[in-house]
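Quick illustration, no need to memorize.
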Amino acid sequence: MGEVRSIHVEDVARARALIARTDHDSLAIVQILLAQEMCTCDLAATLRLSEPAVSQHLRILRNLDMVSWRRAGRMVYYAVDDRTVRKLVDLASRRPPRDPRTRFGDVDAVAR
């Protein structure tokens, strides 16, 4: 059986903040950073966004403790290396659940 991990209040707050502020670009940045460390200029080129736009997304993600960073000379590299963040991104990137009645028909009518 897989590892069971309790969810902490801080994790729930981070999930709510991520979902509330998640737009396509922020989510794409986190997904890229889950795979590899990158600087702002490489993220901008990969996503075809301006560097200032990427910087704004990264500022928000840093404030939410969603990304970590390190300085190497004049460059700043960003990464995501947190299992909780991985789970939150996975949840945020899924489509909202469908109404079960649209998948299985009118359950109430069948139960009567």
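The chain has one domain: 9-93.
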